[in-house]
Amino acid sequence: MVTSSPNLEVVAQEFWSGTRLESTFPRNLEHAVTLKLPLACVKLPVLTVQTVEQWLAGRQLVLPLPLHHYDLLGCLVVQRGHGFIFVCSADSADEQRFTLAHEVAHFLKDYLWPRQQVIAALGGHITDVLDGARMATPAERAAAILSRVRLGAHIHLLPRPGTDTDGVIAQTEARADQLALELIAPRERINSFLQNLPAREAMHPQAVCAALAAFFGLPAYAFDAIVRRRDERRPVSFLEDVRAALRRHQ
């Protein structure tokens, strides 16, 4: 049976292990991907399903991509254990870093981890089934473990904000964002940064998000939920209550 995915912190630490890149911020995720994963990063000035298909076709790669007619932030295409992450080069460097991290998170969480678990459970011969090269035998089909993985090519589209998505997809994307953030802005480093941030308590949440964004090289919105949760948990003293009331009535 496929076990649950490992802790996000563990996944992120294993990803950066041996790269000698984890101590520098903003982290050079693109370089780390080339060192650690069987993925290549492709940057296109206009990123749509159509431009991805054209790029793949130019390299004699034809894959059935989902129908989607809007611009994309990113796209992950994986087949037989190897693949590409497409990123829109017209976006800011911070946005590209977050997009790349998001697609890396999908690769690790939704493709590589389940694949490794199935191979460990059923043996290396099962890779032909996982890759869509042959049909599963009755015995293999009977293994419930196969029902937990997607067979054949794995494709993920990252639409731009504003595109309608259902609740299940939204939850999946949120989980990928959590791992993406841990890859390039580890929770431990975020906490340390906030503790050492001068005048943290007096700063507006947007200013705190901007400070985090500048240090980690990400869009400020990536830290909205973290800063909001910290502010909600932070105890407010009687003196702070009085000061807040006075500011409201000035």
Concise structural overview:
With about 250 residues, the protein is of the alpha+beta class.
Number of DSSP helical runs = 11
Largest pleated sheet? 4 strands, mixed
SSE ordering: HHEHEEHHHEHHHHH
Shape: globular
**Number of domains in the coordinates?**
2
pLDDT below 50 for ≥5 consecutive residues: which ranges? 236-250
The neighbouring-strand order within the major sheet is: 1-3-2-4
Report on the structure:
This protein has 250 residues and is α+β, with helices and mostly antiparallel strands. It has two domains: 8-184, no CATH class; 186-250. It is built from eleven helices and four strands, in the order ααβαββαααβααααα. Strands 1-3-2-4 form a four-stranded mixed beta sheet, with helices on both faces. Helix 4 packs across helix 7.
Helices, strands, pairings?
Layout lengths: L7 H9 L12 H8 L2 E6 L4 H9 L14 E8 L2 E7 L4 H30 L4 H4 L7 H5 L11 E6 L7 H18 L2 H9 L9 H12 L7 H10 L4 H11 L2
Parallel strand pairs: 1-3
Antiparallel strand pairs: 2-3, 2-4
Helix pairs in contact: 1-7, 4-7, 9-10
